[in-house]
Each structure stands twice: as structure tokens, then as C-alpha cells.
Amino acid sequence: MDVEAHGSDLPKRLLRKGDQFILDFGGHRTGHFGFKLVGEGSSIDAPVRLKVTFGEVPGDVAEPLYPYKGSLSSSWLPEEIITIDFLPQTVRMPRRYAFRFVKVEVLDTSPNFGVRFFDTHAIALTSASSQPAPLAISTPEWIRRVDEVSIATLRDCMQTTFEDGPRRDQRLWIGDLRLQARASYVTMPNHDLVKRCLYLFAGLPRESDGFLPACVFEKPAPSTTETFILDYAALYGSIVLDYLQASNDLAAAKELWPVAYRQIELLLKMVDDQGLFQAPKGYWAFIDWNMSLDRSASMQGVIIYSGRRLCELAQLTGNSEQVKPLSRRLDEMTAAAHQHYYNTAKGVCVSGAKQQISWASQAWLTLAGCLSREEAAGALRRAVIEDKTSTQPTTAYLYHHVVEAMVVCGMRQQALELIKSYWGRMVDDGADTFWEAFDPNDSTFSPYGDVHINSFCHAWSCTPTYFFRALHLLDT
Ligand code: RAM
Fold first, then answer.
1. Which CATH number fits domain 7-63+76-124: 2.60.120.10, 3.10.150.10, 3.40.630.30, 2.60.120.260?
2. Could you give the CA distance from residue 329 to residue 348 in angstroms, rounded to a whole number?
3. pLDDT digits 0-9 by tens, 96-146
4. What angle do CA 41, 42, 43 make, to 5 degrees?
5. What's the distance, CA 412 to chain centroid?
6. What is the pLDDT of residues 42-75, one digit of tens each?
7. Where in the chain is the domain with CATH 1.50.10.10?
8. pTM of whole model > 0.90?
9. CA-nearest residue, atom 9 of ligand 1
10. Cβ < 6 Å from ligand 1: which residues?
């Protein structure tokens, strides 16, 4: 981006039909955009029509958004046409936007007048009440920057719920919530917000059996859709446990216990006689947006991991008796996972008929405790670091779990290097909030068929700060 002029010089310009400018607010904001518009000429004899485009990244305002090829609704594209009837007028655009850049095009005035913009400003919104102290000055520069960007990402996703992204879907998803809540406890804790989100899910289970939806809409009134993600439902109890440990709110944890337990109870019905989880047809197992990923091994890991976390929650909420059979079942599933998914000869976990080697399988079976520490470290080293052909993540959601798995089996230095090569690379590419999807080799990658519908301030990407601050990754 070339700087053309300082923002304070904008009122010096008299703009007419066809003129345009791009404002740079110097950092990402979730919120409103306002300005004062003054007309100047022989006669203000028509409305002013403007096109306003909001950019989280330069491409949003520098590249045409059409033709749009994405699979998600084009109504998410961040642009508006507004018509201002009488001048002068103070304008506050009514919707909430996610932006660092704002492009304003004057579509028309009349031949008799032009317009000047005064007091262009952003009103930033967040429910994060405090900013954490920056990392020590002695911390390497790239780490401090990745930490700052993580925090800005979290801050701008913390609204009246933990949103997945303030640009799109602006929605509360279990998977995103879990990572955001964890990052928030060590940066900008807002226990009421986590609690509110947990209760929003608990209040909207599937009527027939209590299975939790993957996401909820908050407005105009809390509601949900027929979107169920097996791994997200499994992980609900893990969020309750984290919340309890962070807040000591035992009353809420006890009240939410039956909801958390019900998820695992339902998911265990999908485990076969051999102790292997079999996702029923028509159900969505997410893990990551990489569509070529075989999810059998990683789903086995998610279910065991979530079951173990549920058992921990049971201890703390006085429900240990209830989980005794579950604990035995998890032991069987753990043994089955090792036997079925760990290839001793290759020293890696494999998944599916084609024996696919992926980062996801190593990460989740490690986090589930299905491998010894040595096996896990060896598998992660081979699949993630050495094997360049293994199936990789496309989102930070899975990168997070790979980094966490490395930390769990003592690969702290490698975990740091992975953060540098992924999140650090986004910073090198100009990110001031972390992106929903990022392929270092393809800047146009999108899970939805068009990069302009991607979200560039995305909840599940905010966790490097959690690794630095909660898991003390810098103490290596
Ligand atoms: C997308 C969003 C969201 C995620 C789901 C599975 O719609 O990116 O963050 O949780 O997918």
C-alpha cells in the first residue's frame, strides 16, 4: 500500500462523481464507520450516492469483488451503497463492519456540487474490558508481534458472544469458542461472556435427544439450525472444564454437567464393538477444512480426548460414579486406537483404507493419550516435520491442535518453529489480525471457493498467545 496523503488532509479534497479514496485506520476494527459530509457548489440539488467497501486486508479494497465465485452468500461481501439526502450531514453507517481499510467511491452528486469528508472515524466495539501487558521486551520481535496480533484477533471477535469472525459468520461455534475462551483466560478474561456462550448452547439442544448444534445465532433471538458437527459436540464438556478451572464457578459447571455428559453418551453409541468410532453417514466430522483429510483416526482421538476431559469434569462436579463405565470404555477405545491406527513399522498413525498419513491423526491421537510420549514425538516428527507429502491442515484450528500435541510430548522448540512458520508467516504477509484460512503457498486459498469471502480476523486463529502465556512456550 502506498500512502497518498495523511488522513487529516482528506477535507482538503473536493470530491465529485467518479472520485474515490481508501482510508487506512492503521489496525483492524470491529465496529461502526462514521463521517461528516459537506456539500460545496452552486446548488446542492441532488442526493449523494456513495459506495463504501470495508477491507480487513488490502485485497478487499484493491481487487474487484466480482465476479464472485464463492459458495457462501454474496451478501456477506463487505460493501454498501448509501444515499445521503441532505447536506451537510453527520453519517453513522448503521451496520457493524470488520475493517482496517475503507474505500469510498462517489457514485454521483450532481454537476452543480461536490462533497468534502470531515471527521472520518471508526467506533470500535469489543467485550474485552482490558488489554494484557505486552510480553517482556527481551522476547524476540516476531513472538511479540504474533502475540499482539493474536490478542487483536481475540479482542475483535469478543462481542456479545465469542464470534467466529466479525466479518462472517458473526456466529458462535463450539470449536471456535473453545479456543477463544482458553486464549481469553490468560489475556482478557471475561467469564460472564464464556458462561453466556455455554448457556446459549445448553439452551438449544436438539429436541429429540439433546445433541448440541455446532453453532447458534444470537439475533434477533437465540436460535440454531440443523448443523451438527460430531467433534464440536464432543468438545463441549472440555469448554465447561476449562471454564470451571478458570472461574471456579462450580454452580454453573454442575448445572451444565448433564449437557456435557449427554454429548459423550450419544457419541459413544457411534463406537463399534472393536472400540472404534464410526461417524454415521450424513454427519459432519470437521477437524479441518482440508477436504482430502481422512478423519477416522482424528475423530477417534477427539472422542477419547473429550471423554477424558469429561471424566476430569466429573471429578470436580461430584459425578465420578456416573463416569466409571465411561472411563472403562475409553480405555478400550485407547487400546483399539493404538492397535488400529498406529503403524509400528512406520512409526506414524495412519487413517482410512488408503492408510493416509496426516498431521490431524498424529495430533489428535497424541492429545487423546493413545500413544506413549516417545511414539507421539516420533510420529509428529515424521509426519509433520520430515514427510513433505503428508496431509496438512488448511486452517489454524488444526494447526492449533498440532502445536498443542507437540507441547504435550515435549517438542516445545518444534512447536515454536511451527508457530513461526504459520502465524509468523501471516504477520510477514501483513496480517494485523489472524486469518480464517491460510495456505502459505497459495494466497488465494479459500474453503468457500473465493478468497474475498474468507474472514481475516478469525477466532480460531488467536491461540499463539495461549501457547506463549498459558503453556509457557517461551520458557524453552
Ligand atoms: C466456518 C467458520 C467457523 C467454523 C466452522 C466449522 O463456518 O470458519 O469458524 O467453526 O466453519
1. 2.60.120.260
2. 24
3. 999 999 999 999 999 999 999 999 999 999 999 888 999 999 999 999 999
4. 95
5. 23
6. 999 999 999 999 999 999 999 999 999 999 999 9
7. 141-475
8. yes
9. 164
10. 164, 169, 173, 175-176, 286, 436, 460
